[in-house]
Amino acid sequence: MPSTASKIPEWILSCLDQYANCACGRNIVKKLGKDKLLETLKEMGYPCDLEILSDTKDKTQYPKDGTYILTLKTQKEIDPKEKEIA
């Protein structure tokens, strides 16, 4: 059985590396589940937040017309006690 990490496409990791965000799409989020996706990315060194944007009245957990955006957390968001380096 493949690990959850192997189910995350390489292009998502590449976008996160390059842009610190990625429009990952509904299918990957629905397939893995929001919590499992975020947990797996964190374990892989990509602590992220997931924002789901939708203009319709579709209030389901994973709206079909939604835009699914992963955004890397900054070090300050990960550890608020950490002092900013000037």
The shape is globular
Count of alpha/pi helices: 4
Q: Average pLDDT, to the nearest integer?
A: 85
Report low-confidence residues grouped into runs of 5 or more.
none
- The helix fraction, in percent, is 25-40%
Write out the strand line-up for the largest beta sheet, numbering strands in chain order.
1-3-2
How many discrete domains?
A: 1
Helix-strand category = alpha+beta
- Most strands sheet: 3 strands, antiparallel
N-to-C CA distance: 46 Å
Share in β-strands:
15-25%
SSE string, helices as H and strands as E: HEHHEEH
Cα-atom radius of gyration:
14 Å
Number of strands: 3
What does this 3D model show about the protein?
This protein is α+β, with helices and mostly antiparallel strands and 86 residues long. It is built from four helices and three strands, in the order αβααββα. It has helices at 10-19, 26-32, 34-43, 75-78, and strands spanning 21-23, 48-53, 67-72. It has a three-stranded antiparallel β-sheet with strand order 1-3-2. It is globular, with a radius of gyration of 14 Å. The mean pLDDT is 85.
